[in-house]
Structures are given as structure tokens and as C-alpha cells.
Specification:
Length: 172
């Protein structure tokens, strides 16, 4: 298995608002940026496993990502997470078609355990071009084989295909 020595997770949101009046066009730019520097290892603020995947979903299609044993890292090694420090899911269906409305949902027993629910009822919708990120760099969220290890991505559109980019950071 490959060893992750260090990582930096950078989140940046930038916005600019303008107001036009009779004399000028003032504008205000705002940026929210957070950089998480993570060392290699299995302790607080450390990680040693990264999983990335582009998921293609047919109309009403579903992908189940088993965080505890059936996925592979970028080197082809089995990736078994015991803790997840961060997840990013991006609905990139707009890259397939400029007219698509393919919303995706993320769910699964891993998310249910994180939120504190006991059944697979939590659906987090992501509209076209949107994303959801969860990041807990200190201790992470526990992955429990068979009961809290599935991240499910579902295409909620009955006619259009969807596509999502998935990134999972954590500890083996």
C-alpha cells in the first residue's frame, strides 16, 4: 500500500457583488478560504488514505461505495477506511449536457451514523453544478464494516444520465 506523507486540503469560495447607480459601479469582493494541513499517519489532523472516483450514473442509477473494503486507491490497492476525515461529492452532470437537470443524492449507512440516524432515510440532494463537503480533520468519523460503511450516490433524474466526482480522505 502507498504511504501518504503529507496533504493539504484547500477550500476556497470567492464572490463579487456590484451595485450600479448613476455615478459609479462600486463592487465588493469576498473570499472565504480555509487550508487544512494534514500530516501522514493515523492520529489527529493526519491521514494516510485517499480515494477518488468519477461515478457515472444512468437515469435513476445508483452507486454504492463501500468504504470498508471493496474500493481501490489510485494504485490499485484495496482501500479500507477505519476513519473518514473528509468527503467531497461534486455533481458534474452539467459537463455531460448543458441542458441536464440531473440532481444527485448522497445517502447510505455511513452518513446516517454520522448524522445520528439509525435507518437509511437521510438524503442529501446536490443540484447540477453543486457539491457537498464534510471535513472533520481532527478525529474523523468512524467507519464500521457492515453497519456504517456505505456511501450511496443516486441519480434522482428519470431520463438524464448524471456524473459525480467523489473524494474521500481518511485513515486505513
Amino acid at each position: 500500500m502507498a504511504t501518504l506523507v503529507a496533504s493539504k486540503v484547500k477550500v476556497t469560495y470567492t464572490g463579487n457583488i456590484e451595485k450600479t447607480d448613476n455615478f459609479a459601479t462600486p463592487s465588493v469582493a469576498k473570499t472565504l478560504q480555509r487550508i487544512f494541513k494534514m500530516g501522514g499517519g493515523s492520529g489527529n489532523n493526519q491521514l494516510d488514505l485517499l480515494y477518488t472516483q468519477r461515478v457515472a450514473l444512468a437515469a435513476y442509477g445508483t452507486a454504492n461505495i463501500d468504504l470498508s473494503g471493496t474500493i481501490e486507491d489510485q494504485y490499485g490497492d484495496v482501500a479500507v477506511f477505519t476513519k473518514v476525515k473528509g468527503v467531497l461529492v461534486v455533481n458534474r452532470s452539467d459537463k455531460l449536457s448543458t441542458v441536464t437537470t440531473a440532481e444527485i443524492n448522497i445517502s447510505g449507512n455511513w452518513i446516517d451514523s454520522w448524522i445520528g440516524q439509525s435507518v437509511d432515510t437521510i438524503l442529501i440532494p446536490i443540484q447540477v453544478g453543486g457539491h457537498v463537503s464534510i471535513f472533520n480533520p481532527r478525529t474523523g468519523l468512524t467507519v464500521t464494516a457492515s453497519t456504517a460503511d456505505i456511501l450511496t450516490i443516486t441519480n434522482a433524474d428519470s431520463t438524464n444520465a448524471a456524473e459525480a466526482d467523489v473524494f474521500v480522505f481518511g485513515i486505513a
